[in-house]
Amino acid sequence: MYYFPAKKLKKNSEPIVFIHGTGMDHSVWTLPVRYFLRKNRNVLSIDLPGHGKSPGKLISSISGFSDQVFKLLDNNSITKCSIVGHSMGSLIALEMASTQPHRVKSMSLIGTAFPMQVNDQLLEFAKSDVQKAIDVLTFMGYSNQARIGRNKNPGMWMTESTRRLMQQSKKGVIYNDLLACSNFKGGLEKAKKVTAKVQLILGSNDFLTPTRKAIDLIDNFENPDVKEIVDSGHTLMTEDPNKVLDYLIELL
User: Fold this and answer.
1) Which residues pair with 81 in a beta bridge?
2) Helix (H) or strand (E) holding 175
3) What's this model's pTM, rounded to 2 decimal places?
4) FRET partner for 199 with CA separation of 20 to 30 A, picked from 15, 180, 209, 210?
5) Per-residue pLDDT tens for 10-30?
6) Nearest partner of 17 among 116, 114, 112, 104, judged by Cα
């Protein structure tokens, strides 16, 4: 599994592990990764199997992705970590924190919900006409304002950068990821098993994982810290990167 920065981690370093969402890769975490590296924190920003620069076959389930991340940690003699996960990555973080709670110190779930149901038509697009699926995910992944601009950081074309990133994904990746999200079960029971410090960062204009669909999940965590970014959509790290970083700094 590929990870950035590409260097061996110190044993028992308790790194921050960044896990991307559907059809994406480690590059979506550029701003927070650079920040924490400059603060001399140990960071692991990964490409899940079959994504980005990671070789190997796709994993068809959230639990399978979780096992692979733990395997990577084991190979680097890492016994404990903090996790930041976006969308599908947030489900992987939840799975990790519930199955091996003693190994997860804190976690931030960005753009999350449970159940993370995927529309049948979107699944069919992802299977038969991936460009249509990418167009839907890109359009629905941003707030109305973001679709025409509005980013505070100059030089960023938000919707097109996300579209181009997804277009780089290997064949079958987006369908695989959407199906894994849709098939993820037992999220509320898993939340009750989490002992880590929990943060949720949600967008008030998230059309893919609306904030109302995170309410049950929130209720089953113990004392979660819920942050809502007003007017932001699902791809919060791109749409409001500075505020997301501010919230991560609070947690990590």
Assistant:
1) 104
2) helix 173-183
3) 0.95
4) 180
5) 777 899 999 999 999 999 999
6) 104
